[in-house]
Design brief:
Layout (H helix, E strand, L loop, with lengths): L5 E6 L3 H12 L4 E7 L3 H10 L4 E3 L2 H5 L6 E4 L6 H10 L3 E4 L7 H14 L3 E3 L7 H11 L6 E11 L17 H17 L5 E9 L5 E10 L5 E7 L1 E5 L2 E5 L2 E5 L13 E5 L2 E5 L6 H13 L9 H20 L3 E2 L1
Parallel strand pairs: 1-2, 1-4, 2-3, 4-5, 5-6, 7-10
Antiparallel strand pairs: 7-11, 7-12, 8-9, 8-16, 9-10, 12-13, 13-14, 14-15
Helix pairs in contact: 1-8, 4-5, 5-9, 7-9
Length: 333
């Protein structure tokens, strides 16, 4: 028996939705982009026409009232995640919410509670981890091919500082590099190490030109067992997004850890026993994989890989990083 496609409602016309998530849904055999909403109805209609979405709404409320919609995708500015995720849960919709899930762990916990009460799934949209290479990397680590893990290094930076009207530069809206891109190295280290941090120390550059959000940040995340993540993130620096896992017998290098586009861009390298090998990874759309895993979980075919508990754990670390950056002290978790 064929499982019916899940109907997705897109809450807002954000760039990430138009550029990546909606095209990913169009490629899926388990999901379809059925409706899109904006507070500007003309914008919703225009986007729906451009991206071949059947229905457009002029309010988020109207989208939630559509009984045909199974899943709500929320790419709204960070400060709106809590409100609309809770309202989506109360409307009986499953939720995929852009990272960071909320502004604080407390907000995230309220979202998780609402989803649990309504019996719907809530997941955070870290699409990179659905790419098959992360399962491959974790297997290499778990099999001991690089020996004992000693440390992880990662970075995610880009330069958008000239666009000062961007929502990333509104402090009250959850702007800043830790929220926007620093969350990726943190999330990846938690995923690959399979445990939670014990303490963080972060130094940040807060910019008066950008509403005093953190435009750059560098940090040390302690995982215990003398293993740590060192990372930097920024919105006022050249683009890069590497990740390196250092073992006592080898190294895993991922040149483009969080962004994949052209075939081959997901490949990575393993150095061990005196040779460096390129690991060729199947070319897939991580956004499609993310939606398909959620569909399978909703249909009860598998357990959701990254549910609300994982998102809360990541928010706990981000809270500590921001506290450390503002106080310039080491913060324990």
């Amino acid at each position: 028996m064929t499982t019916k496609k899940l109907k997705w409602g897109i809450m807002g016309c954000a760039g990430i939705a138009k550029r990546a998530v909606i095209p990913g849904l169009h490629l899926s055999e388990l999901n379809e982009a059925s409706a899109i909403a904006s507070r500007d109805e003309e914008n919703a209609k225009r986007t729906a026409e451009e991206l071949n979405i059947p229905t457009a709404y002029g309010s988020y409320e109207a989208l939630l009232e559509d009984d045909a919609i199974d899943v709500i995708y929320i790419p709204l500015p960070n400060h709106l995640h809590r409100e609309w995720a809770i309202r989506a849960a109360e409307a009986g919709k499953h939720i995929l919410c852009e990272k960071p899930l909320a502004l604080t762990e407390k907000e995230a916990a309220e979202m998780a509670e609402a989803a649990a009460k309504a019996g719907v799934l809530l997941s955070e949209a870290f699409m990179y981890r659905y790419h098959p290479r992360y399962a491959m990397i974790k297997n290499i680590i778990d099999e001991g091919r690089i020996g004992e893990v000693r440390s992880i290094r990662s970075a995610f930076t880009f330069n958008n500082a000239g666009h000062k009207e961007n929502v990333r530069y509104r402090k009250e809206w959850g702007g800043g590099s830790l929220y926007d891109v620093g969350c990726y190295p943190i999330n990846a280290a938690r995923l690959l190490l399979g445990k939670e941090p014990e303490a963080v120390t972060v130094q940040a550059m807060f910019s008066e030109q950008h509403d005093n959000v953190d435009m750059m940040a560098s940090g040390l995340i302690e995982f215990g067992g003398s293993v740590s993540l060192t990372f930097d993130c920024g919105m006022w620096a050249a683009f890069r997004n590497p990740l390196e896992v250092l073992g006592d017998e080898g190294i895993i290098e991922v040149p483009s850890a969080f962004v994949t586009g052209e075939p081959g861009s997901g490949n990575f390298y393993v150095s061990a026993k005196g040779e460096r090998k390129e690991i060729v990874v199947p070319h897939v759309n991580a956004y499609t994989e993310q939606a398909d895993q959620m569909a399978n979980a909703i249909h009860g075919k598998q357990t959701i890989l990254y549910g609300a508990a994982d998102a809360l754990a990541n928010m706990r670390v981000i809270d500590a990083c921001l506290a450390s950056a503002h106080s310039r002290t080491r913060v324990t978790l």
